[in-house]
């Protein structure tokens, strides 16, 4: 359809041009004394058009002729760029294909072109690193232009980390500008180095940052956070103030982790802050879906200085976990600490009855606790019976056929 429109337009133009030339009867007189040239107006217009075309062609030819050196230089530059791009492509392809010698040679050729020099030099440096040619590797990094030095420094930090030099890697990262240090790759390198040197505070900070930005798998981040928090609590030792500071540096979610709660409670207990340690465990047991078997063994070791309020709390736990041996064991131990011998004996006997067949160790411990209680109230015969039961339960755990019960 388009060609038909063009045909119509050209036909109309031809008709208009024919009419214009037919109806135009003017002449043009050119006086060049002693000559006079008379031509029609149509022919004069045609001559002017032809002269313009010839003049344009001459100027165009002169422009092309004078511009040939520059055009040749541009052609050679484009050809060099194309060859350099091909060399860089081959270098990176060979590097990822494991042909490091060929990759290094191709990257060297690509580095001759300024625009490709940064990527080519880093590819050559990585290839030399794989070939363990460390002198050549460092020489390539030294040739990097200034804007690419930060990327080279990150590469060097990664190599130092791979060479089991985490402290050198950390020093390399800390020498970089603040903006580069906040890059995801830099944070990952710093996280790995901090883990290797045991800098738990840095691991905690970096893992949280990477998890927040989605740069770390949640499961891996949680494992790192858990290990780092545990390490910080252990580093605090028996300094209660350091323990409090470390504990409050953890997030609310981290402070609900059973392992961290138990580690903090044991730390406070070792520091002499038994009441504070006990309160951490009580708060943990007050949460929904709390597992008494995780917290109550540690809690029973921290009964010094309890009062009637704690005993009342254990009674509430019995209502919450009516079939839980750990709850009855803790209630009995609390009553014994408060010298409520009758209730203590009652709870401990109930604890023995609540033990399953897989809880022989716990049952043996309860028998031993009940035996001690009975000795304290001078019931030697009953105490001896429970000592025997405790010995049977605990010794059975060490038999080859009972290893799975431990």
From TrEMBL:
<keyword id="KW-0997">Cell inner membrane</keyword>
<comment type="pathway">
    <text>Porphyrin-containing compound metabolism; protoheme biosynthesis.</text>
</comment>
<dbReference type="InterPro" id="IPR010817">
    <property type="entry name" value="HemY_N"/>
</dbReference>
<comment type="function">
    <text>Involved in a late step of protoheme IX synthesis.</text>
</comment>
<keyword id="KW-1003">Cell membrane</keyword>
<feature type="domain" description="HemY N-terminal">
    <location>
        <begin position="26"/>
        <end position="130"/>
    </location>
</feature>
<keyword id="KW-0627">Porphyrin biosynthesis</keyword>
<dbReference type="Pfam" id="PF07219">
    <property type="entry name" value="HemY_N"/>
</dbReference>
<feature type="transmembrane region" description="Helical">
    <location>
        <begin position="40"/>
        <end position="59"/>
    </location>
</feature>
<keyword id="KW-0472">Membrane</keyword>
<dbReference type="GO" id="GO:0006779">
    <property type="term" value="P:porphyrin-containing compound biosynthetic process"/>
</dbReference>
<dbReference type="InterPro" id="IPR011990">
    <property type="entry name" value="TPR-like_helical_dom_sf"/>
</dbReference>
<dbReference type="GO" id="GO:0005886">
    <property type="term" value="C:plasma membrane"/>
</dbReference>
<keyword id="KW-1133">Transmembrane helix</keyword>
<dbReference type="InterPro" id="IPR005254">
    <property type="entry name" value="Heme_biosyn_assoc_TPR_pro"/>
</dbReference>
<keyword id="KW-0812">Transmembrane</keyword>
<dbReference type="GO" id="GO:0042168">
    <property type="term" value="P:heme metabolic process"/>
</dbReference>
<protein>
    <submittedName>
        <fullName>Protoheme IX synthesis protein (HemY)</fullName>
    </submittedName>
</protein>
């Amino acid at each position: 359809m388009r060609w038909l429109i063009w045909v119509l337009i050209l036909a109309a133009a031809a008709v208009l041009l024919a009419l214009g030339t037919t109806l135009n009867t003017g002449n043009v007189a050119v006086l060049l004394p002693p000559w006079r040239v008379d031509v029609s107006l149509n022919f004069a217009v045609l001559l002017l058009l032809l002269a313009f075309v010839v003049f344009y062609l001459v100027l165009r030819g002169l422009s092309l002729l004078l511009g040939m050196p520059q055009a040749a230089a541009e052609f050679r530059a484009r050809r060099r760029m194309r060859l350099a791009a091909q060399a860089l492509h081959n270098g990176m392809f060979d590097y990822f294909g494991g042909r490091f010698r060929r990759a290094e040679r191709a990257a060297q050729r690509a580095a001759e072109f300024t625009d490709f020099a940064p990527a080519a030099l880093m590819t050559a440096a990585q290839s030399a690193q794989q070939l363990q040619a460390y002198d050549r590797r460092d020489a390539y990094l030294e040739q990097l232009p200034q804007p690419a030095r930060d990327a080279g420094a990150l590469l060097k930090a990664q190599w130092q980390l791979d060479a089991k030099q985490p402290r050198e890697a950390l020093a390399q990262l800390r020498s970089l500008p603040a903006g580069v240090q906040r890059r995801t790759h830099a944070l990952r390198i710093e996280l790995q180095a901090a883990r290797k040197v045991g800098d738990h505070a840095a691991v905690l900070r970096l893992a949280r940052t990477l998890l927040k930005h989605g740069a770390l798998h949640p499961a891996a981040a949680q494992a790192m956070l858990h290990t780092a928090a545990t390490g910080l609590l252990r580093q605090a030792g028996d300094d209660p103030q350091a323990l409090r500071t470390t504990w409050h540096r953890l997030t609310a979610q981290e402070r609900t982790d059973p392992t961290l709660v138990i580690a903090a409670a044991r730390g406070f207990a070792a520091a002499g802050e038994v009441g504070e340690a006990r309160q951490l465990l009580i708060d943990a047991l007050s949460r929904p879906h709390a597992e008494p078997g995780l917290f109550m063994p540690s809690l029973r070791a921290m009964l010094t200085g309890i009062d009637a309020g704690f005993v009342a709390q254990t009674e509430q736990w019995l209502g919450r976990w009516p079939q839980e041996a750990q709850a009855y064991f803790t209630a009995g131990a609390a009553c014994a600490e408060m010298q409520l011998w009758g209730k203590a004996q009652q709870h401990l006997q109930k604890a023995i009855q609540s033990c399953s067949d897989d809880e022989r160790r716990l049952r043996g411990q309860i028998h031993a606790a009940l035996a001690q209680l009975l000795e304290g109230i001078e019931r030697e015969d009953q105490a001896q019976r429970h000592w025997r039961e405790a010995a049977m339960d605990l010794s059975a755990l060490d038999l080859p056929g009972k290893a799975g019960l431990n």
